[in-house]
Write a structure and sequence with these properties.
single chain, alpha+beta, Penicillin V Acylase, Chain A, globular
């Protein structure tokens, strides 16, 4: 259903890319989230409250909450489907609505280490439900930062499992991440230049993207650098990583109702942690657009802003100044949209 890769190159280039595979139109919008705003979980008997420390840009689905994004400190957060998720219910823990998990992480953490320490030491219930398309909101979360650090958070048997290592660069859906790592270890002994698994299953996508991510250049490639507008390694790396994440894509119109992990690729994002640029690549558009975070004045933004209909509208180039005023959904609206 989704794939995420983390690239660590030379010249301090760190890039995180993800593909969003889903079985219906999520009516995605891009949202600017400001600093210094107080929030409360949409659901739960003991809802957690927090105040945003950092501004961010996120992709919202169903006008419900974030699925992906990057904050002004360079922390990228990606939410991917994991059917095996079991969040449990600790009566002593505070509750966080699952559609706010991405925003919560973008709001509060500057680095992967900060996120890991918080989630490791804080009791938190992730409250899930049924999404508008009838699927369970069963997710796992990844974070990456400008240093190349990486962590993946999964709930198994009611307990949070944290996988924290900068070598954890590829993530898909099922199976749970410890089993994905076993797959990777097996395929290390097989020459990917002569044989790679080619299906659209999550396991095969994991193997395929791991191979491509490991062999793309980490320095200037003299055979292709002249094709890039500015002929820089940085641009080359972005092009290479987009190629990797596109290799995991599923053509529009393909999905299996019996297997939630198999759905069409709707869009892809790429977070450039060095230049602080957030790229959006829609499967329904012939062009890529991006948001240059350096052009967003987070010091003076006091309410959310939105770039609407980022799949059905044709955007191109830097859209940093194309956002309009936006009101985040209320708890009542979320409870009407999602069945908890």
């Amino acid at each position: 259903m989704c794939t995420r890769v983390l690239y660590q190159g030379t010249e301090d280039v760190v890039l995180t890319a993800r593909g969003m595979d889903w079985n219906d139109d999520m009516r995605s919008n891009m949202v600017i989230l400001p600093r210094n705003v107080q929030y409360i979980s949409h659901v739960g008997k003991n809802p957690i409250t927090w105040t945003s420390k950092y501004g961010s840009v996120a992709v919202f689905g169903y006008n419900a909450g974030g699925t992906d994004g990057i904050n002004e400190k360079g922390l990228a957060v990606n939410l991917l489907y994991l059917v095996e998720s079991d969040y449990g219910n600790d009566p002593q823990a505070q509750d966080l609505c699952i559609v706010q998990w991405v925003q919560f992480s973008l709001d509060l953490f500057a680095t992967v280490a900060e996120a890991v320490e918080y989630y490791r030491t804080t009791k938190l219930n992730i409250v899930s439900g049924t999404l508008p398309n009838g699927r369970s909101a069963s997710m796992h979360l990844s974070v990456s930062d400008s240093s190349g650090d990486s962590a993946i958070f999964e709930y198994q048997n009611g307990k949070l499992q944290i996988h924290h290592n900068r070598d954890y660069t590829v993530m898909t859906n099922s199976p749970p991440y410890n089993e994905q790592l076993s797959l990777s270890n097996y395929w290390k002994n097989i020459n990917g230049m002569t044989f790679l698994p080619g299906s659209i299953s999550a396991a095969d996508r994991f193997v395929r993207t791991t191979f491509f991510l490991n062999i793309i250049p980490k320095s200037v490639d003299k055979n292709y650098i002249s094709a890039l507008p500015e002929q820089t390694y940085h641009q080359q790396a972005i092009a290479s990583v987009l190629g990797v994440i596109r290799s995991a894509g599923v053509p529009l119109g393909i999905q299996d109702p019996e297997k939630p992990n198999i759905s069409s690729t709707l869009w892809r994002t790429l977070s450039d942690h060095k230049s602080m640029v957030y790229y959006f690549d829609s499967a329904t558009s012939p062009s890529i657009f991006w948001v240059d975070m350096k052009n967003i004045d987070f010091a003076n933004i006091t309410s959310a802003m939105m770039l609407p209909n980022i799949q059905s509208q044709l955007y191109a180039g830097d859209m940093s100044h194309g956002f309009v005023k936006y009101t985040l959904p209320s708890a009542q609206e979320i409870n009407q949209l999602i069945k908890f």
